[in-house]
Request: fold
Amino acid sequence: MSTFSENFSVDSALLQELGERLVTTPHVALAELVKNSYDADATEVHVVIRESDKGGPEVEVRDNGSGMTLQQIKSFWMRIGNTHKEREQASERFGRPLTGNKGIGRFCVRRLGASVKLESSAKSGRKLEFNILEIDWNDFIPGKDVSAVPVKGTSLVKSGDETGLKLTMSGHRRIEWRALEDRRSYAYLLRQLATLTANRGTKRPGYEADPGFRVILNAPSLEYGAALEGFVGGDDEEDVGLAVDIREKLMGAGWALLTARVGKDGKARCRLDAAAPVGKREFISSHKFTTLQDISLTLAIFVEETGWNRNESLLPLGKLNAILTDWGGVQLRHRGVRIFPYGDPGDDWLDIEKDRARRLGRPSQDDLIDFANTIKARTPLDTGRVLLNMLSHKAYLGAVEVGDDQRGLEVKADREGFVDNLVLQELKQFTRLAIDWAMIWRDFAVKERARQNAEKFRRELEKGTGGKAIPPAEQSDVALKILRKGVAQLKAAQERNDPSSITQAEVKNLASAASLLESEFKTNRADLLRFQLVASAATLSLLYHHEVKYLAQTLTTLSADLDAAIKQLKGPIKLRCQEVLASVGAAKETLDALGDLTQDMGILDRKAVAGRLDLARQTDRAIARFQRVATAYRVDITKRIDAGILVGPMLKGELAAILLNGLSNALKAVIAGGAKKGLIELHAYRARGKVCMDIMDNGIGLNADERKSAFTPLVSDPSSRLYDALEVRLASEDRQLLGQGSGLGLSIVQGILENRKGSVAFVDPTNGWATCLHIELPTP
Reply:
């Protein structure tokens, strides 16, 4: 007997396998490379997409970060599976929390091109080390060990202090770039970049002051750049195509952009570019700021409510909240350098929160009182209350700029802020005048939008009821009568199995009535649109149920014919046909179950009555609907339900809605969490005379302060982590089954349970679970 020792080797095929699994699309790869630049303490990064000399797309990502020495390239970038980012929690220079997905940078560049050129400048002692590395991924062919493929480069040491990294990737299949033509995918990229550029500068203990982060995205109008239309504009300094400063896109995404300056005459000149119904407005104060001569400000104003900001695809509500929490506040810059602590989280140097707490509605400046009286609105403004809609101090993203010519501001001895003198007081007054003026327009917008919505829906309702005027005091009653009539018509259509009897005019009238009632309750516009779509889709749901039943019957007939034919066959062909017959039978069972579930959900079925329901049986039916997706993503769904548990009285559709929404949310959370083995458990039990069910998962989790907002209609992702993670991990066809995130599911569950004397809430998870949705069901 002889002994031996061997080392593991890595086949080159693993690079392709890992690359395609870890980095699914080009826009995900681009986002990760920019995150790496952020982690490398870059203050600016340029992303360029252009046509290469050899044809096809060429991508360049260059930054002014710390770069990598040759030793770092060997130890980190070229070592697969290194964990140095897991050991480090913050960047070396500015102390930024690390954002990049740990250790997948090389897979990102592989996703963006068959060839990559890495150029890096990094400090090495007192010198600058410059390294060039060129990789052809085609050399890493399956069957060849990764370590056996040479990667050549050059290295030299020179003087200077300009560090940074440049990656140039080319040779990719053009068809891969069609992913950027999907607006949802491109919006994902912009959201990732916008989150990073929200960093406008901060100071972390023990590190250098962070000056902020800027991203320039530059792409020509090639066939794979068609998605850029409507997103970007302007001239690129390299004259290769369209370019956009992502920070400018971020600043323009809010409700309004406010700019102001002090003129040579000492008067404040303000300009507001806001969403409708405000639009573009200007104002010149009569008051003169005698000590100010080189002062200006630029502030993006954001509203943390759905339907107010101008680009909600760039900044969904959950992501906006995170950005404003970290970076919201009016900063102060002196000759281009940020002065701390003005604008830090919690710093209320302009007394905005103080005045909001006092419910101060009347402006302190006479100029603004006079101005408010000049606004001609059909809903007049009350000058004593025009600031009651004042937004929080964190709603403003931007800075007051103090130029070189300004005199009289004295920095404190500890370098933290300015000495409180007349100049600083006037600076505050100028800033508040501009903000308060914008908030008067905000008050106007709130009132005018509410009035316009009510007026619009009332006119639509009047048109649908013969043109007779409806007095405001009677509009709610009229709308309710129309809704009752519409529901009766839909019931009758279902009984006759004749959905075509419901006319488009009747559907439109029903939607108008619903819209008017919603405006009465002051809901937002997005909620109204969904309500109208629900009314308009009622006819389609009847057709869908009819077609499912017809298809199931057709499969039954085909199965019988196929079974008879198989009896005449022999050998392998007979076995194969029997397998096909089994597949047809399984498809028929699925359609039958789907038809039954659709029938259960039919709220217009006049024969449906609330009764006692077998919880275990209904839970099995709900789990079966998601079993295919659960299996595909390695998620185990189990149930623990005490024997003989009945719930109710309630409709089958109500219990199905509760279970389906709860399971769908848990499954999305598990897939987004990326655990190696996903787990979901539905545990039902009796406690304190009630029937309880806990839906637990080991997914992405939900913070305690987000639990309540998850039940708010239209809030689909309070933390703004869920759908960005699903964008990377979930196939597009599976998004349809699990839902795109309307933000209505949990609010529907809550409404059903409250109506049936039950309840639902997120509670602290136990036994290692990440999330626990606790449901108390109606008990017979």
Summary: The mean pLDDT is 80. The chain has 22 helices and 22 strands. Residues 4 and 10 are 20 Å apart (CA to CA).
